[in-house]
Design brief:
This protein has 230 residues and is an alpha/beta fold. The chain has one domain: TIM Barrel (Alpha-Beta Barrel). The chain contains eleven helices and eight strands. The longest helix has 14 residues. The structure holds cytidine-5'-monophosphate (C5P). Cytidine-5'-monophosphate binds next to strand 8. InterPro entries: Aldolase_TIM, OMPdecase, OMPdecase_AS, OMPdecase_bac, OMPdeCOase_dom, RibuloseP-bd_barrel. Catalyzes the decarboxylation of orotidine 5'-monophosphate (OMP) to uridine 5'-monophosphate (UMP).
């Protein structure tokens, strides 16, 4: 099921910056936000409880990767937070992913990170000793995530069609690297506009800088939301 709200990546250095950012939105505007590991490690579960208390939906992007027993225990804690989506690394293996899913149940959607977008084919061959293309490795990890019972994967919008063809149409594709036409690309390499992401079948888009660094974040958010739903 496609989520109509773009997920806003709250990539801010401090809790106060998050609070200032949220001031741009009316209180009754319920957002879907992404919290990453840096922020979570710095502030702790308090940030989740704060955002939840305001009625926002939360994607907790902690990218868990450890032995199945440890990930299961960690996930049993995260499951009590009232979050909406959380990540593990597919490289942790089918057993690890499946244990995480079992303990999380329907408390939140569980999606897997496949190959990080920062990993080049050369790195992958050299460091992970995976002798395929990055795309083949991404699709393989997506299949493993599906086999483990996960809800979907985080991927580049360019990979959505391949992943859905290899798994299922309802296997969720969460796509960062989204830029409205004409906005700064920054360090993202292969970007897509919100409309293109919709057309190729993304279920969620994750947008950071085009919203959080905009002169008027509310306007930027609504423009992106409009494009994503058009
Ligand atoms: O500012 P920008 O829109 O590029 O932010 C995208 C967000 O999605 C950031 O929080 C970034 O860490 C995250 N992300 C990504 N590429 C991935 C996975 C996560 O850009 N493959």
């Amino acid at each position: 099921m496609r989520e109509e709200r773009p997920i806003i990546a709250l990539d801010f250095p401090s809790f106060d910056d998050v609070k200032d950012f949220l001031e741009h939105f009316p209180e009754d505007e319920k957002l879907y936000v992404k919290i990453g590991m840096e922020f979570f490690y710095a502030i702790g579960p308090e940030i989740v409880h704060y955002l939840k208390g305001l009625g926002h939906s939360i994607f907790l992007d902690l990218k868990l990767h450890d032995i199945p027993n440890t990930v299961r225990s960690a996930m049993s804690v995260l499951g009590t937070f009232g979050i909406d989506m959380v990540t593990v690394h597919a490289a942790g293996g089918v057993e690890m992913m499946s244990e995480a899913k079992k303990v999380l149940g329907n408390q939140a959607k569980l999606v897997a990170v496949t190959q990080l977008t920062s990993t080049s084919e050369e790195d992958m061959r050299d460091c992970q000793n995976i002798q395929t293309t990055v795309q083949e490795s991404v699709v393989n990890y997506a299949r493993k995530a599906k086999e483990a019972g996960l809800d979907g994967v985080v991927c580049s919008a360019q990979e959505v069609e391949l992943i859905k063809a290899a798994t299922a149409a309802d296997f969720l594709c969460v796509t960062p690297g989204i830029r409205p036409a004409g906005s700064a690309i920054g360090d993202q390499k292969r970007v897509m506009t919100p409309q293109e992401a919709h057309q190729i079948g993304s279920d969620y888009i994750v947008v950071g800088r085009p919203i959080i660094q905009a002169a008027n974040p509310w306007d930027a958010y609504h423009e992106i939301k409009k494009q994503w739903n058009s």
